[in-house]
Amino acid sequence: MDADKDIQLDELYQDIILDHHKSPRNYGPLPDPDLKAEGFNPFCGDRVGLGISLDGAGRIEAVGFSGEGCAISQASASMMSELLKGRTVDEAESLTAVFKGIMQGRDMTEEEEKRLGELAALEGVKKFPIRIKCALLGWSALQDAIDHYRQGTALHP
Ligand code: ZN
Predict the structure, then answer these.
(1) What pLDDT sits at residue 124?
(2) Which of 12, 15, 57, 76 has the most CB within a 10 Å radius?
(3) Residue 63: in which H helix or E strand, if any?
(4) What residues sit around ligand 1, an ion, with C-beta below 5 angstroms?
(5) How many CA atoms lie within 13 A of 128 on its CB side?
(6) pLDDT, tens only, 127-148
(7) Distance between CA atoms of 95 and 53, rounded to whole angstroms?
(8) Which residues of the chain have pLDDT under 70?
(9) Residue 156 has what pLDDT?
(10) Beta strand pairing status for 46-54 and 60-68?
(11) How far apart are CA 81 and CA 117, in angstroms?
(12) 71 CA distance to ligand 1 centroid (A)?
Protein backbone atom coordinates (compact mmCIF):
# COMPACT_ATOMS: atom_id res chain seq x y z
CA MET A 1 0.00 0.00 0.00
CA ASP A 2 1.01 3.59 -0.49
CA ALA A 3 2.05 4.71 2.98
CA ASP A 4 2.36 8.37 2.07
CA LYS A 5 -1.20 8.45 0.91
CA ASP A 6 -2.45 6.99 4.18
CA ILE A 7 -0.62 9.64 6.15
CA GLN A 8 -2.15 12.37 4.01
CA LEU A 9 -5.63 10.97 4.49
CA ASP A 10 -5.13 10.85 8.25
CA GLU A 11 -4.24 14.50 8.10
CA LEU A 12 -7.23 15.26 5.96
CA TYR A 13 -9.76 13.58 8.20
CA GLN A 14 -8.69 15.10 11.42
CA ASP A 15 -10.72 14.53 14.55
CA ILE A 16 -12.23 17.97 14.35
CA ILE A 17 -13.61 17.33 10.85
CA LEU A 18 -15.07 13.97 11.83
CA ASP A 19 -16.60 15.44 14.95
CA HIS A 20 -18.44 18.11 12.96
CA HIS A 21 -19.54 15.53 10.43
CA LYS A 22 -20.90 13.23 13.13
CA SER A 23 -22.51 15.98 15.19
CA PRO A 24 -23.18 18.89 12.84
CA ARG A 25 -23.81 22.20 14.63
CA ASN A 26 -26.81 24.37 13.79
CA TYR A 27 -28.31 21.57 11.75
CA GLY A 28 -31.86 21.99 10.50
CA PRO A 29 -33.70 24.67 8.53
CA LEU A 30 -34.66 28.02 10.08
CA PRO A 31 -38.37 28.90 9.95
CA ASP A 32 -38.11 32.27 8.21
CA PRO A 33 -34.53 33.10 7.20
CA ASP A 34 -33.52 36.54 5.88
CA LEU A 35 -30.84 34.99 3.68
CA LYS A 36 -30.93 31.58 2.08
CA ALA A 37 -29.32 29.56 -0.69
CA GLU A 38 -28.45 26.04 -1.68
CA GLY A 39 -25.29 24.50 -3.03
CA PHE A 40 -24.81 21.27 -4.92
CA ASN A 41 -21.61 19.55 -5.96
CA PRO A 42 -22.45 16.98 -8.64
CA PHE A 43 -18.99 15.43 -8.41
CA CYS A 44 -19.64 13.67 -5.11
CA GLY A 45 -23.32 14.48 -4.62
CA ASP A 46 -22.80 16.93 -1.75
CA ARG A 47 -25.68 19.22 -0.91
CA VAL A 48 -25.81 22.13 1.51
CA GLY A 49 -28.87 24.27 2.19
CA LEU A 50 -28.25 27.40 4.21
CA GLY A 51 -30.54 29.81 6.02
CA ILE A 52 -29.51 32.88 8.02
CA SER A 53 -31.56 35.17 10.26
CA LEU A 54 -30.41 38.68 11.11
CA ASP A 55 -31.17 40.64 14.27
CA GLY A 56 -32.41 44.24 14.26
CA ALA A 57 -28.85 45.56 14.02
CA GLY A 58 -28.01 43.53 10.91
CA ARG A 59 -25.94 40.92 12.71
CA ILE A 60 -26.30 37.21 12.12
CA GLU A 61 -28.49 35.89 14.89
CA ALA A 62 -29.10 32.33 13.76
CA VAL A 63 -27.73 30.00 11.12
CA GLY A 64 -29.34 26.76 10.02
CA PHE A 65 -27.86 24.42 7.50
CA SER A 66 -28.99 21.10 6.18
CA GLY A 67 -27.47 18.76 3.71
CA GLU A 68 -25.79 15.50 2.97
CA GLY A 69 -22.56 14.39 1.46
CA CYS A 70 -18.95 13.79 2.29
CA ALA A 71 -17.43 14.61 5.68
CA ILE A 72 -15.52 17.60 4.34
CA SER A 73 -18.55 19.33 2.81
CA GLN A 74 -20.70 18.84 5.90
CA ALA A 75 -17.98 19.61 8.44
CA SER A 76 -17.04 22.79 6.60
CA ALA A 77 -20.68 23.96 6.59
CA SER A 78 -21.03 23.07 10.27
CA MET A 79 -17.90 25.00 11.25
CA MET A 80 -18.97 27.92 9.07
CA SER A 81 -22.37 28.03 10.78
CA GLU A 82 -20.66 28.50 14.14
CA LEU A 83 -18.23 31.09 12.88
CA LEU A 84 -20.96 33.28 11.35
CA LYS A 85 -22.99 33.97 14.49
CA GLY A 86 -22.78 37.57 15.63
CA ARG A 87 -21.13 38.77 12.40
CA THR A 88 -22.45 41.35 9.99
CA VAL A 89 -23.15 40.37 6.38
CA ASP A 90 -20.02 42.30 5.35
CA GLU A 91 -17.90 40.33 7.83
CA ALA A 92 -19.40 37.07 6.58
CA GLU A 93 -18.45 38.03 3.04
CA SER A 94 -14.94 38.94 4.09
CA LEU A 95 -14.51 35.56 5.85
CA THR A 96 -15.74 33.86 2.68
CA ALA A 97 -13.04 35.60 0.67
CA VAL A 98 -10.35 34.59 3.17
CA PHE A 99 -11.41 30.94 3.27
CA LYS A 100 -11.76 30.72 -0.52
CA GLY A 101 -8.33 32.27 -1.05
CA ILE A 102 -6.71 29.72 1.26
CA MET A 103 -8.55 26.78 -0.34
CA GLN A 104 -7.42 28.03 -3.73
CA GLY A 105 -3.80 27.79 -2.62
CA ARG A 106 -2.82 30.99 -0.84
CA ASP A 107 -0.84 30.51 2.37
CA MET A 108 -2.77 31.20 5.56
CA THR A 109 -1.43 34.03 7.71
CA GLU A 110 -1.43 33.76 11.49
CA GLU A 111 -4.14 36.41 11.70
CA GLU A 112 -6.31 34.48 9.24
CA GLU A 113 -5.79 31.29 11.19
CA LYS A 114 -7.16 33.06 14.26
CA ARG A 115 -10.10 34.48 12.33
CA LEU A 116 -11.04 31.10 10.89
CA GLY A 117 -10.81 29.18 14.16
CA GLU A 118 -11.66 25.51 13.69
CA LEU A 119 -11.92 25.97 9.93
CA ALA A 120 -8.13 26.20 9.84
CA ALA A 121 -8.30 22.40 10.23
CA LEU A 122 -9.44 22.23 6.61
CA GLU A 123 -6.27 23.85 5.27
CA GLY A 124 -4.87 20.42 4.34
CA VAL A 125 -7.74 19.91 1.91
CA LYS A 126 -6.10 22.21 -0.62
CA LYS A 127 -3.60 19.43 -1.35
CA PHE A 128 -6.53 17.45 -2.77
CA PRO A 129 -7.89 19.52 -5.66
CA ILE A 130 -10.99 17.30 -6.04
CA ARG A 131 -12.02 18.00 -2.45
CA ILE A 132 -11.64 21.78 -2.57
CA LYS A 133 -15.15 22.11 -4.00
CA CYS A 134 -16.43 20.03 -1.08
CA ALA A 135 -14.82 22.36 1.46
CA LEU A 136 -16.16 25.42 -0.36
CA LEU A 137 -19.71 24.20 -0.94
CA GLY A 138 -21.30 25.81 2.12
CA TRP A 139 -19.32 28.99 1.47
CA SER A 140 -20.50 29.18 -2.13
CA ALA A 141 -24.06 28.88 -0.83
CA LEU A 142 -23.27 31.66 1.65
CA GLN A 143 -21.97 33.93 -1.12
CA ASP A 144 -25.10 33.21 -3.20
CA ALA A 145 -27.29 33.98 -0.20
CA ILE A 146 -25.46 37.27 0.38
CA ASP A 147 -25.72 38.24 -3.31
CA HIS A 148 -29.46 37.56 -3.36
CA TYR A 149 -29.96 39.40 -0.09
CA ARG A 150 -28.13 42.47 -1.43
CA GLN A 151 -30.12 42.42 -4.66
CA GLY A 152 -33.34 42.02 -2.68
CA THR A 153 -32.59 44.88 -0.32
CA ALA A 154 -31.57 47.04 -3.28
CA LEU A 155 -34.88 46.32 -5.02
CA HIS A 156 -37.06 46.63 -1.92
CA PRO A 157 -35.37 49.03 0.50
ZN1 ZN B 1 -17.56 16.04 -1.23
Answers:
(1) 87
(2) 76
(3) strand 60-68
(4) 44, 46, 70, 73, 134
(5) 18
(6) 889 899 999 999 999 999 999 9
(7) 18
(8) 1-13, 154-157
(9) 54
(10) antiparallel
(11) 12
(12) 7
